[in-house]
Amino acid sequence: MIQSKLPDIGTTIFTVMSQLSAENQAINLGQGFPEFNPDEKLIDLVNKAMKEGFNQYPYMPGVAPLREELAKKMAALYGAKYDSLNEITVTNGATEAIMAAIMASVTTGDEVVVVQPCYDSYAPSIRLAGGIPVYTSLTPPNETNPSFSVDWDRIEASITNKTKLLILNFPHNPTGITLEKEDLDRIEQILDRHNILILADEVYEHIVFDKKPFLSLASRPAIAKRAFVISSFGKTYHTTGWKVGYCYAPSELSKEFRKIHQFMVFTVCSPMQYALAEYMKDQSTYSNLSNFYQEKHDLLFNGLSQTKFKPIKSAGTFFLLADYSAMSSKNEFDFVSDLTKQYKVGLIPVSAFYKDPTSTEANNNLVRFCFAKYDDTLKEAIQRIKDI
Length: 388
Hints:
By secondary structure, this protein is of the alpha/beta class. It has 2 domains: 13-31 and 288-386, Aspartate Aminotransferase, domain 1 (Alpha-Beta Complex); 41-282, Type I PLP-dependent aspartate aminotransferase-like (Major domain) (Aspartate Aminotransferase, domain 2), CATH 3.40.640.10. Helices cover 39% and strands 15% of the residues. The chain has helices spanning 13-23, 40-51, 64-78, 93-105, 122-128, 152-157, 181-193, 221-224, 233-236, 251-264, 270-279, 284-287, 289-304, 332-343, 375-386; strands spanning 27-28, 88-91, 111-116, 132-137, 163-169, 197-201, 227-232, 245-248, 310-312, 319-323, 345-346, 348-349, 366-370. It has a 7-stranded mixed β-sheet with strand order 2-8-7-6-5-3-4, with helices on both faces. α5 links the parallel β3 (111-116) and β4 (132-137). α2 (40-51) packs across α11 (270-279) and α4 runs parallel beside α5 (122-128).
């Protein structure tokens, strides 16, 4: 018999709600993937790469043209200089990069500070590395602050002499909040006082609203020298199924990161890498993404404002939260389950992003909408919700 290393881990909420949506013929605004295909130009570039013979194992850390373009992008957007040969690794999606960074830096008994609500792969990855997840929390919306906010004092109070790593995710899934200059100042101060590393999950870096630039942690040298900065083509180019991500890290950290990477997946799909390298030479392929998603955000926000939901504006990502307290007193999971069955709209409870989804702390009458969908899909979902 196998003794499970993750005995308490079951099917993810995303799979559960997607299946429930399918069973009830509901519009699925739960799981975070775009409804639309990538640009035909990108698909053509993949076909071209295949026909030109790029179908065998590529170089383990990623093909040179793609790493070079990634280095150029980081320098142009954030003023951060990474050596494409030794400090950039192409990964099998951001989730593999997160796992590799944790496995490379965390050993038995090390503590890792995790800020909830958070992406569900963090804690299992920490536990598989022998580490201990230490949870702290964002401050939920209240009368004075309509969205989640970061309490840096609370985060720093979670750091001990056993802490090896702090995981930060901005733009933030599921809350949609992002960073200001003052936040980067606080992170620098924390690193100045504590000998820890940072894992920066920045997969939504190109989806930031209201004409604001994204402030990558890589833009601060004092942070970058101690950070794994991770992003993904899936969210940027509507290619979540391709599973191509990447990690920037100083050479010393990248060396250990690649040791894990080569024995997890070894390398990443060759034709996709060559196609992405060519496609991303045109900066407009990612620089216009914020405007594209802002329109969808505003469509959904304005539509929900005409219902009993109280929507919360997002600063980034393709997610939007809404308060349902005027509609129901049920806990978040029961509310979304009923909504899916009765009104045929599938959502995700924000409580699912907490260590204990059944706790009072996790249940704030909030649900997550994904607006990476066709406008007609969003309009139909809004119309169904108006019937409540």
